[in-house]
Design a protein that fits this description.
Chain lengths: ~170, ~800
């Protein structure tokens, strides 16, 4: 009996390990790239590269690197930077906060409250804690919440399209 | 009747299935394949709207959706702002709407069996006792009132739905149904510092759905089956534009018992007879109870209240029905601009439940009838949140018993500000609560109720919560709340000190030290009731008095917890707790007097002295201390896209110090014995008669008001307090597990089990040994279309029908059928 239970557990674990890699990370990376086309940063923040810092999500980093190899943001190269903590986040145009680091949202928001940076989170509701955009799943579909007010507070300009396609929140 | 219900459901399902079948075949796998074959360069060339369309066609993988739904839940109740459940500094569980529906739970209380640390026992079909971690039925050896859960604060969107009259939650009076609910958040451990009084063992916060563009316009659930059970709800919601949304929901529930008889229990030496023939305590029909006697006195004598007969039939208007309720709710959300939100929710409910009694009557059963309404306004402006609500109506806590029907009004108003300073968040707040109860409209004359006027408890409170993150890994939280009560005229402080350390993204340690307190209740504070006993030989009068300045119960807890995600698909949560509760109280005998009830006739030498007792029962604080130690563990495991497992287990031990294991009657008996065996009693009787006669002669005593002469009064209490006494009302272990198996997209099989060990319930009249139980449920759902799901739902399918709660009903296995729809 014990062997049977053990075997079942092993089989279940095996099934879990064979999980198909989801496309969600790819899609989120594509979203981030697409945001660069719909956001205008103030001229003072211009550098030679468009810096996207990924805080705590290696999958997104990897996917974004793939895009950065073949695409530019306007005439700028995309530079993908990985960070492990809020203090590691340097000057960036976009900062993406992985879902496992969601607890850092308030700290991140506070640390960059005066910077022209688009803070993107990966959890429902984080716009209330300072994220400009936050991904969520609604009915099996990937969606994003967007706070025009927060984007404006960071001295960024957005197209009407990016607002209308998202779920507008306070 | 049931067949007719099934027929309606079946026909309705068929119509919907046919009408909606066409919508099933709209997805195109070719398009999906095409998208999946596109290169990164091609995909990144898509415009945002085209990218979203492509993503919608591919969809989020089932596995990732499961991770999101089960393992990456959010919670707001633990810190009063949204955070990942994994990061919650407190012992926290979130039950989502989908989980509740999948489980086949037929009520909110039953769904709570899926929450770690909750002991949930069914009293009668659909009526439950729900306790967080137990600590229940204290002080023991008392009325069933003290088995009510007075330690947990149940809320709807942060609005308390607590019974401040007697303490506890009247679950049947909750106005919401499943379709109102987005999730139920349960926080275990003292939480008064966040939510105010009565959150000793924790809070259960029912969060309603947010109306968005993705909300179904029309949705609902209905199921019917055994014991004439019919449960359903419906919701109509619409987001009109960016500023306005509204919703209307309705729910209903009707359930029968498996008998129409009620238990007459052995109330310590009662001598029951039916039509003159001696009978043992047991189950009887209302007609039989109406004809029964206890000794020479009628067991359930009728009397008149405002022209209405209060008898056994008034007490049990529907003895075969365990629960009947309906609720309606309206929602209006208004967002005038991006900085301001208003959420208004209002509704009404009518309910009737045949469940355990709160008073001392010959049966442990009672019928509770309630009709209440509420309005709740929540508003936010930047970091400022404001909430004001009203709840009021009429609740009859013991139908057919004069004095237990009360009108009530509850007002809560609170404001808090979330001040983010980066590494530190500070949340100051103020709140004011006012709870009024009034029995005057429902008693024949002033004096017949336990309040006899409108009485109010007011609580003014200030609070602050500081959330400090010195580093990305370390988090320190301190919350403090001070409450000023009108009664007791005192200030109570509650607090939470929490530290959590996130070793890495997948491991979190935490430790909590917290204190919470109960509020005062109307019955404890204001009771002023004279019971002229007519169905027992002794005593003749029982006087119940509250104590406006009693001490409030408090609980202190130390807890450590560890949360880990050893794999992406597995979440394990372990918590160990130790809590100490004190400040218990109960309406207990203070004095027993012997009095001559025919003093004038004795003085006039017309009759022999009629000597009987007067018992003064007063709300008294007890020295009792409860110490509970325990451990809960839970696991959520997404085994594969088709199989998800969850499980939880709690082990606990409760020990009592300074516990006096005697009931009210034993105290009265002890005091009456001392009085009757006083060698000076004859002299005291003579003196009482002389004093009475003199008083009448001088006009100091009005014999029409003061009809008896008190001879002697005893206040001694029996000895025999016990310490290190093992309290077994809460089973030493309890838990549950479930599997969700989806062999294909259209079918879900959801077996779910709940179990608990033996328990020993010490009541006023006996100690009931209740055996452990294993309840197995299973729901099989068929998703006929994306709008319609049909299901068969078996509850307690092993037909383990032993009673779960002392004296209450045995609940047999049940089979239900039903559907969920969403457009």
């Amino acid at each position: 009996m014990k062997k049977t239970i053990l075997l079942l557990c092993v089989l279940c674990l095996g099934a879990a390990l064979q999980e198909m890699k989801g496309q969600t990370a790819t899609f989120k990376a594509l979203f981030l790239y697409n945001f660069t086309k719909n956001i205008e940063w103030p001229s003072g923040s211009n550098g030679s590269d468009l810096v996207i810092t990924i805080l705590g999500d290696d999958e997104i980093s990897t996917e974004l690197e793939k895009i950065a190899k073949v695409k530019k943001a306007g005439n700028k190269s995309i530079k993908v930077v990985s960070a492990r903590s809020v203090k590691d986040v340097g000057d960036s145009h976009i900062v993406f906060l992985g879902s496992s680091k969601s607890s850092l949202m308030k700290s991140l928001s506070y640390a960059h409250q005066n910077n022209p940076v688009l803070l993107v989170a990966d959890k429902d509701g984080l716009c209330k804690q300072g994220a400009a955009i936050s991904f969520l799943t609604v009915g099996g579909k990937l969606r994003y919440q967007i706070s025009p007010q927060t984007i404006e507070a960071h001295n960024l300009k957005v197209t009407q399209k990016i607002i209308s396609l998202g779920i507008k929140v306070q | 009747m049931i067949r007719f219900k099934y027929l309606i459901i079946l026909m309705f399902s068929l119509v919907l299935s046919n009408a909606l079948l066409a919508q099933e075949s709209e997805s195109s796998s070719l398009t999906k394949e095409k998208i999946l074959s596109m290169s990164t360069e091609e995909l990144s060339g898509l415009a945002l709207e085209d990218l979203m369309a492509a993503i919608d066609i591919v969809g989020v993988s089932s596995l990732e959706e499961l991770y999101e739904l089960l393992l990456n839940k959010d919670v707001t109740s633990a810190s009063k702002s949204e955070e990942s459940l994994f990061d919650s500094p407190l012992s926290t569980t979130v039950l989502s709407h989908d989980q509740i529906i999948s489980s086949g739970a037929t009520s909110i209380e039953e769904a709570l069996r899926m929450v770690p640390g909750l002991i949930v026992r069914e009293k009668s079909n659909g009526n439950f006792d729900v306790h967080i971690r137990g600590n229940d039925n204290l002080p023991g050896k008392n009325m069933l009132l003290y088995s009510e859960n007075m330690n947990t604060l149940v809320m709807i969107n942060g609005r308390p739905v607590f019974n401040y009259s007697h303490g506890g939650t009247l679950w049947e009076t909750l106005p919401v149904g499943f379709e109102d609910i987005d999730r139920i958040e349960v926080v275990r451990g003292p939480a008064s510092a966040l939510y105010g009084p009565n959150a000793l063992s924790g809070v259960i916060n029912i969060i309603t759905q947010t109306i968005s563009d993705d909300s179904a316009l029309l949705s609902g659930n209905v199921q019917a089956g055994s014991l004439n059970t019919l449960v359903g709800d419906i919701a109509f919601r619409d987001k009109i534009n960016d500023k306005w949304s509204f919703g209307i929901t309705g729910n209903f529930e009707s359930r029968d018992r498996n008998t129409d008889e009620v238990l007459i229990y052995d109330r310590g030496g009662a001598e029951y007879s039916l039509d003159g023939v001696p009978v043992d305590p047991g189950y009887f029909s209302l007609s039989e109870i109406n004809r029964m006697q206890n000794g020479d006195l009628p067991l359930w004598p009728p009397y008149q209240v405002n022209g209405e007969t209060y008898d056994i039939y008034k007490s049990f208007p529907d003895p075969e029905k365990s629960k009947e309720r309906m609720g309606v709710n309206g929602y209006v959300d208004f967002m005038p601009n991006e900085e301001v939100t208003f959420n208004l929710m209002a509704g009404h409910q009518n309910s009737q439940a045949l469940t355990s009694s709160m008073g001392d009557v010959p049966t442990p059963y009672t019928t509770k009838i309630a009709s209440t309404s509420y309005a709740d306004l929540r508003a936010t402006y930047k970091g400022l949140s404001f909430q004001a609500n009203y709840n009021g109506g009429t609740i009859d806590y013991m139908a057919g018993n004069e004095g237990f029907e009360l009108d009530n009004e509850q007002y809560n108003i609170q404001a808090e500000y979330d001040w983010n300073l980066g590494k530190v968040s500070i949340r100051p707040g103020v709140s004011y609560q006012s709870m009024s109860y009034d029995d005057t409209e429902h008693i024949a004359e002033i004096g017949n109720g336990y309040l006899n006027e409108k009485r109010t408890i007011n609580i003014l409170a200030g609070s602050a919560r500081v959330d400090y993150r010195p580093s990305d890994k370390l988090r320190l939280v301190a919350a403090l709340r001070a409450e000023q009560y009108n009664y007791p005229d005192d200030i109570y402080a509650s607090w939470q000190f929490v530290g959590s350390y996130k070793i890495n993204d997948n491991n979190l340690f935490r430790a909590v030290y917290s204190r919470a307190n109960q509020s005062s209740f109307l019955v404890n504070t204001y009771s002023n009731y004279t019971w002229n006993v007519v169905n027992m030989e002794f005593p003749r009068i029982m006087q119940f008095d509250g104590d406006p300045n009693h001490d409030l119960k408090t609980m202190d807890m130390i807890e450590i917890g560890y949360r880990t995600r050893p794999a992406k698909n597995l979440l394990v949560d372990i918590e160990a707790f130790y809590n100490v509760s004190e400040g218990f109280g109960a309406l207990m005998p203070e004095t027993t007097s012997l009095a001559v009830f025919n003093p004038l006739a004795v003085i006039g030498q017309i009759e022999q002295p009629d000597i009987n007792g007067i018992v003064n029962i007063k709300y008294q604080n007890l020295d009792l201390v409860s110490k509970q130690m325990g451990l809960s563990a839970s696991i959520d495991w997404v085994i594969s896209e088709k199989l998800v497992g969850t499980g939880h287990f709690t082990l606990q031990q409760t020990k009592l110090d300074n516990y006096l294991p005697v009931n009210r009657n034993e105290v009265v008996g002890y005091q009456a014995y001392l009085a009757q065996n006083d060698p000076d009693l004859p002299a005291k009787i003579q003196q009482a008669l002389v004093d009475y006669g003199t008083g009448v002669a001088t006009g100091e005593i009005d014999p029409t008001v003061q009809t008896y002469a008190v001879a002697t009064t005893i206040s001694d209490m029996p000895e025999g307090e016990k310490s290190d006494y093992e309290h077994k009302s809460t089973p030493s272990y309890f838990g549950g597990f479930s599997l969700s198996y989806r062999p294909c997209k259209k079918i879900e099989i959801f077996p779910q089990a709940y179990f608990y060990g033996d328990q020993s319930f010490e009541s006023q009249y006996s100690t009931e040994e209740i055996a452990g139980k294993f309840l197995l449920n299973a729901k099989v759902s068929y998703k006929a279309s994306r709008n319609l799901t049909l299901f068969v739902n078996g509850r307690n399918i092993l037909n383990m029908n032993e009673r779960e709660f002392a004296y209450m009903d045995e609940i047999p296995g049940m089979v239900l059928g039903g559907l969920n729809f969403k457009f």
